Amino acid sequence: MTGIWGILNITPDSFSDGGRYVELDIALARARTMRAQGASIVDVGGESTRPGAERIGSIEEQRRVLPVIEALTADGIPTSIDTLNADTAAAAVRAGARIVNDVSGGLADERMLATVADLDADIAIGHWRGPSSDMYAHAQYVRIAREVASELRERVTAAAVAGIAPSRVILDPGIGFAKSGEQNWEVLRGLDEIIGLGHRVLVGTSRKRFLADTLDGDPGQARRDLATAVTSALAARAGAWAVRVHDVDATRDALAVASAWDGV
């Protein structure tokens, strides 16, 4: 079955849960709950990548995330580090993280790919066309799914040149990054373009604005989570290796129902 990554934001400004898990004991309790609900990985992030977010320094980022990763590793809970910074990636892997999740695909920090090459960790390479502060200015495409796949292929090549074996690479189409609402749907409809590259594919739609825009009225968090679970099940059916979500419980149920439907 498609794996589930549980999102754990140790940030004051993430778009849907900023500030909720900045205290260590609360963050650990949340991670343990997600693991019990079926998360295969807890994805720990200390810097928001929401639209318009400003960058923070790696020292502050590490202050937020390293105690969490160390404690979860001691508990035997697998983690990934959601970061744009090579220094944070290295420190997090030393603390126990198994995967570096870089939504920029190594473009935000030119040292990232070489750093990961020297680590005993996999890397999730996201599709990215610029920082969150102005990413929508770069949302210009002709055939978006094909272009996203092509740009991800370029990042895989860059990773290989840096010394990262293809077997260590996970691809993320970057839903919500430098893409309008309809463009996100086009990428999801064309997910086979990315899966066809032959790598594991991670899809993250969780609570994003393009989901809310499809719903009537005022779509609160519960409705966004339901929409996330549906898109996650559809991504799984399309061949996604894992989905990245806030609500692990709902997603686990949606994946189970989809598997039963398919007789898996």
Topology:
Layout: E1 3-9, H1 24-37, E2 41-45, H2 58-74, E3 79-82, H3 86-95, E4 99-102, H4 112-117, E5 122-126, H5 144-162, E6 169-172, H6 181-189, H7 191-195, E7 200-203, H8 209-212, H9 221-238, E8 242-245, H10 248-262
Parallel strand pairs: 1-2, 1-8, 2-3, 3-4, 4-5, 5-6, 6-7, 7-8
Quick description:
The chain is α/β, with parallel strands linked by helices and 264 residues long. It has helices at residues 24-37, 58-74, 86-95, 112-117, 144-162, 181-189, 191-195, 209-212, 221-238, 248-262; strands spanning 3-9, 41-45, 79-82, 99-102, 122-126, 169-172, 200-203, 242-245.
Notes on the structure:
By secondary structure, the protein is an alpha/beta fold. Helix content is 44%, strand content 14%. The protein contains ten helices and eight strands. It has an eight-stranded parallel beta barrel with strand order 1-2-3-4-5-6-7-8, surrounded by six helices. Strand 5, helix 5 and strand 6 (169-172) form a beta-alpha-beta unit. The chain is globular. The mean pLDDT is 93.
